[in-house]
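Pasting as-is:
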Amino acid sequence: MRMQTKRWLTALLAFCICLSMLCFAPLRAHAATEIKNATTTVEYGDPVAMMEVAQNAVRASGTGYHLVSASWIDGNGNVETSTFKRGTYRLVIQLAADENYVFAENAQGYINNSNAGITTERSGDGSALTISRTYNTTVWTPVPVKHPGAETVEEGGWCSFVVSGMYVGSYEWVLESPEGETVPASRLADRFSKLRLEGDGTSKLKLYNIPYEMNGWKVYCTEWSVDKLSFTNTNSATLTVTTNNPPPSPTPEPTVEPTPEAAEAANSEKPEDEDKAADGEAEPPEEPQPTEHVHQFSESWASDELYHWHLCQGCDEVDGKAPHNMEWTETLAPTWETPGEEEGQCSVCGYRSVRETPIDQEAAAQREQNIFRMILFGLMAILLLSILILLIQAIRRISQRRY
């Protein structure tokens, strides 16, 4: 009987020792280290035609994993590294789990807090996760940044006009005569046979051997979007042509003294307006001709949630439109059960925005580990107490048998 009691106590002690070892071993419990939701952020969301790829940066915004790579793949399967073109792109994001973390088998990927249209692939051991999504490029209306400037040139000389803009697919130069006739630059040589030009269709137009007849003509550029469905005209610039040999003035015709009979007939046919002028009645003043509008852009910034720009004080023309350059600061730290908050401010225009950050998965995992440890320690305490009680009872029985 005593031998059986010793064996039973020895087995129970061995079991308790093995159980206690779990409390001090490094925990990599499946439930405690799983990453169920992997959140990433794309700076401007949908790609925009003519935007630099590097400007639409991708980052990992959760805990327990980090960004390995992010690639924009065009419709031909090539990785885009310069600027977005019109068409379809597939964003492929590679994530890797940090030490003591693993992606759950049903892990979900998010881009800008959205799971719509996202495909998620997990590696066999859960150490890597691939998130992908297809985008259609957004095409924006061109925004002029630099307008052409006025030029003064001597007859037979040359000059150039330069423009630039954002999200421009192509350029088309147009000239306008003082009478209001518009002539595309491509047809200008048909109008002036000696004129030679270069750069039509680009952002810089050069004119050579300019005739004096072009004095007072205006030049502007039509900036077309990538899809050729929308356009914006720049401000016009005036071309002034000087000459040392102005065209001769027309010779006035000699005047003939009227005969007395003709003078009397002319006086009898004098218009009513001349009679009024003779009586001292003034003619109504001529209406002033409208002057060409000159843009005066405000020094302060106008903005929305994506862009900032300078607005003309006299019309709806904008200048310097560009995406925000946001700098984010954490204002509310996330916890294991509630998301955090970041406040951003554009370093250019001062625009402010607030966005939500995902919950602290590391804190959530640590909380689950602590609960698991507490359960283990509780079981250990119960087992040790049971062993102690059994030992005391065994000692009492042995003592009673001796006496």
